[in-house]
Write a structure and sequence with these properties.
86% of the residues lie in helices and 0% in strands. The N and C termini lie far apart (44 Å). It is mostly helical.
């Protein structure tokens, strides 16, 4: 709805600011939240030490971002970015206040509560943003959405976690979290730098409008990742961490979950690619038609990220975070290099390069995971058998419905129904079984 009410320039301005926010925000945590989740025995000294470090660091980063707002605006030659970056600097402080509470909720597997209250906070923030957009506040509608969403999450996490920080700081406990957390920070830093570097370079070479087209193309992929893929990753990391000592059980569940997730995600992204033009114009309007071609290519990067994400959670839960860190660094180098080399080419060339890089990284991560599992590559390949069945169901339904009712809406709806019926019950049953094992 916001995309229908606002211009590509408004989304481009927010994306320009987030190119810096996504990178800087990692330094206010240094991976301590992930270390809290991964560590089997956690004490009060660990939690309070991590909290005060996060909070104090976030204040310094917020101040840095605030006072460099003019420089950032001059870098893009966008004067309106000054006020945008100053307002968004508040999000750093809010993030520093909620990280430990969120980590505790994930460690305790409180996913149902997070989902329910997350939906509520998203609805409230969306309502504020849409109302302001209808009142012609422009880019400030997106700023209001970001701030309301962050602040409502802060309230929710503190209420659900039932933990309050104490005025203590243990250097010994801090160091216990440091080693794992530093590698996680490296991974997140370069992961965010890859996406934000993409936003910065595309915005620099192609302008706010070009970046706006890419932003909308990524919007569907990011939404699906947030709703499904990233939610599953959040489940896998604490669950895998809980059973990390039972390598046989961990091996079994990794291969099984990898099969189920690929069986759902790959056909879903395939469905998005097939219906890209219909989805973009229906959801966002005809003015975003150019984004549909980009989306039809970028969906394959979504597939690659989803599959690699499962393997990444396995590696992190077993302490092999250096592999994850290295691949994120490699992704950053390849994306930056490819955009610079293709700066005089088309939007489509950038999309193809971005997708190719993510497929390459997926291959590297799967190879490393197979080595850690001490199993043959054939076992991992076989785990994708379920996805092949789901893809066949999607394609068969697509062509059947198209022959009966060629309207795009009928094709899209019935293909999704077929996919949901054939995959979701199996995935739900398997995750429920695995979570029960972890809680035991």
């Amino acid at each position: 709805m916001l995309a229908r009410l606002l211009t590509p320039e408004a989304f481009g301005l927010i994306a320009m600011a987030k190119a810096f926010i996504g990178v800087l925000d990692q330094f206010s945590d240094l991976g301590f939240s992930s270390a809290i989740i991964q560590k089997k025995e956690i004490k009060e000294e660990h939690l309070s030490s991590a909290f005060w470090f996060n909070f104090i660091t976030s204040i310094f980063i917020a101040a840095f971002f605030y006072f460099t707002s003019t420089w950032i605006a001059n870098l893009y030659n966008e004067p309106e970015l000054v006020i945008v970056t100053k307002i968004l600097s508040l999000t750093f402080i809010i993030s520093g206040l909620k990280r430990v509470q969120y980590a505790l909720l994930i460690k305790r597997l409180k996913f149902k509560q997070l989902a329910v209250y997350g939906l509520i906070s998203g609805t409230i923030a969306g309502g504020v943003g849409i109302t302001m957009a209808l009142l012609d506040f422009g880019v400030y509608s997106l700023l209001a959405y970001q701030l309301v969403l962050s602040f409502s999450q802060l309230i929710i996490f503190w209420s659900l976690a039932s933990w309050k920080p104490k005025l203590i700081f243990s250097l010994e406990k801090f160091k216990e979290l440091w080693g794992f957390g530093l590698n996680v920070t490296s991974w997140r830093f370069f992961s965010n730098a890859s996406r934000r570097g993409f936003d910065y370079l595309v915005g620099y070479f192609f302008g706010a409008t070009g970046l706006g087209y890419f932003t909308i193309a990524f919007k569907l992929i990011d939404s699906l990742n947030t709703i499904f893929t990233k939610t599953i990753w959040k489940v896998l990391f604490p669950v895998f961490s809980t059973i990390q000592d039972d390598f046989k059980l961990l091996n079994k569940y990794y291969l099984r979950i990898n099969s189920l997730i690929a069986g759902f995600i790959i056909p879903v992204y395939l469905w998005i690619g097939i219906n890209a033009e219909f989805l973009v114009t229906s959801l966002f309007g005809e003015q975003w038609l150019q984004s549909s071609l980009l989306l039809s290519v970028i969906v394959f990067s979504g597939m690659a990220k989803a599959v690699a994400g499962v393997a990444r959670q396995f590696l992190m839960s077993t302490g092999n975070v250096k592999v994850v860190s290295f691949t994120s660094f490699l992704t950053f180098i390849l994306i930056v290099t490819s955009i610079i080399l293709l700066r005089n080419s088309t939007y489509l060339s950038i999309a193809v390069a971005y997708t190719s890089i993510n497929i390459l990284i997926m291959g590297i991560i799967l190879t490393k995971t197979t080595h850690k599992l001490q199993s043959y590559l054939l076992r991992t390949i076989k785990s994708f058998g379920f996805s092949l069945i789901a893809v066949v169901i999607v394609l068969a339904t697509f062509w059947l419905i198209k022959a009966i009712r060629p309207e795009e809406l009928f094709i899209a709806v019935f293909t999704v129904i077929a996919l949901a019926i054939s995959t979701i019950p199996i995935i739900w049953k398997e995750f429920k079984r695995m979570t029960v094992v972890a809680r035991r």
